[in-house]
Amino acid sequence: MLKVEIEKNYGTFHLQVDFQAERETLALLGASGCGKSLTLKCIAGIERPDRGRIVLDGRVLFDSAAKVCLPPQKRRVGYLFQQYALFPHMTAEQNIAAGMSRESSRDQRRRRTEELMARLRLEDCAGKRPRQLSGGQQQRVALARILAAEPQVILLDEPFSALDSHLKWQLELELRKLLSSFEGTVLWVSHDRGEVFRNCSRVCVLDHGRSSPVMEMETLMNAPGTVSAARLSGCRNLAEASPAGEGQVQVPAWGATLRCDAPWRAGVTHVGIRSRHIRPAAAGTENTLSCRVVQVWRDVDADMLVLRPEGGLGEMLYMEVPKGKVPSEDCLTVALPPEHLLLLS
Amino acid sequence: MDWYPLFNSLRIAAIATAVIFFTGIFFAYYIAKLPPLWKGLLDVVMTLPLVLPPTVVGYLLLRLLGPTRPLGALMLDLFDVKMVMTWWSAVFATVVVSFPLMYRTARGAFESFDPDLAYAAQTLGRSNTWIFWRVRMPCCRQGILAGTVLAFARALGEYGATSMIAGYTPGRTATISTTVYQLWRTNNDALAFRWVLVNIAISTIVLMAVNLLERRNRTRRKEAAAC
């Protein structure tokens, strides 16, 4: 279990994160520059927080009140850097051996290195330098090096950002398999909602250095709660809203008053709806908007309509339609189903 | 032809380079880590000998080490050692004059070192000493080697400060550069020219070594970029 509760001022940037991860793969989701990497560096002991506590499996790694700050060497935190940080002058084998405790004998180290190389299918890379390896192989060497140090927690900093996209899904499956045999906590930092959705069960959203409470991945998709979480979860349609009584909200940007299944709560400022939840209006549906089709945006798996609600403030609505279902009309009446409207603060 | 000046020059340059190698790396490593204000200030002090005329360096050294000056008098009193006008007095001059070359090249190498490599090693449990010798130094090897060679070349060619602090005594403090000047002054043109050729030959070899190092560095970087 990893408990993190820290604050740090970094120039004008203020980091304030508070979360707890069990023996699970927890996602830290945030846009770039929101403090994800800084959080990982504080946990690993590379950066020192101004205030707070970090506790790993009952071991205090950092406690500002008790003046405890273990050096990175003593924390047993495995850190997979974005660019993997392999030692360029060492072979893959030497890199992996570099992760091993100096207390074990040379023989033990060699045996364990061979074991890890077999487990990560790196036998053919043993004698090669990092620059001679593919991106995926480099990642595996870096992981083997981390596992060699026997960490209690593994931090993955955007593990696929250094790789070409056509390789990613395969490597993602491999990484998942590897991590499933790891018994400690894994923190998976990413800005890619798909990546964390596929690989993590719970998520902590970071926005401008602030963390929100840890939630289930499903909750992030169904009821993200905040505007930033909704945006990170891929919700494209967001607009300011105010209560209009009897389960209704008024949305001036779209020029509409909409019925919403979710109950209004204090602090709500915005309403949101995912592009795939907007439908062409059928007879008798509620929450309809008549829109002008401004643009059709053809994508690989589906098409996106860019709509301007008539009577709105000129803000666009994005609506996903299946391939080949792009309407030919310039005007379209769409429905925003009340069960899919998200109320956000 | 008496080869003493060549031997003396090489001896002085070698000792000076050995001293500069460690002090240069030491200062480069610690100054690279300082906050900007201190870094800027110390950087100026460390680099000053590079831009000062060697005679000014020689003058300052004489003020410090001369027999009636503070440090010089102290050494004379305590150990009965004269700090100037001996062959090794030239080591002081060459160390001061060549030091900035090593310091600056090594600092440049340390600053372009990817800090993530050191962080990664720390999280793997490796000691800072291990990281310095097994990661940082090998990664900065090219820069440090280039700095060493440059410093050696500069030390070998030092004239101004050397002539002030060590003078010219044939067979005792004579170096190649002071010998060339002395031979020219005494109209021994033929011999002066021979020493000039010797000097050019040595300097050419040293500079070729620097170029070779740089080229190797560049092809390596190119390889890395291509992969």
Can you give me a brief rundown of this structure?
Chain A is an alpha+beta fold and 345 residues long. In chain A, 23% of the residues lie in helices and 34% in strands. The radius of gyration of chain A is 24 Å and the shape is elongated.
Describe the SSE topology.
The complex is a heterodimer of chains A (345) and B (227).
Chain A: E1 2-10, E2 13-21, E3 25-30, H1 36-44, E4 51-56, E5 59-63, E6 68-69, E7 77-80, H2 92-98, H3 106-119, H4 135-148, E8 153-157, H5 165-180, E9 185-190, H6 193-199, E10 202-207, E11 210-211, E12 215-216, H7 217-222, H8 227-232, E13 237-240, E14 242-245, E15 248-251, E16 256-259, E17 270-273, E18 279-280, E19 288-298, E20 302-309, E21 317-322, E22 331-335, E23 342-344
Parallel strand pairs in A: 3-9, 3-10, 7-8, 8-9
Antiparallel strand pairs in A: 1-2, 1-4, 4-5, 5-6, 10-11, 10-12, 13-17, 14-15, 15-16, 17-23, 18-22, 19-20, 19-22, 20-21
Chain B: H1 4-32, H2 36-51, H3 54-65, H4 70-79, H5 89-111, H6 115-123, H7 128-139, H8 141-157, H9 160-165, H10 176-185, H11 189-226
Helix pairs in contact in B: 1-5, 1-8, 2-5, 3-5, 5-8, 6-7, 8-11, 10-11
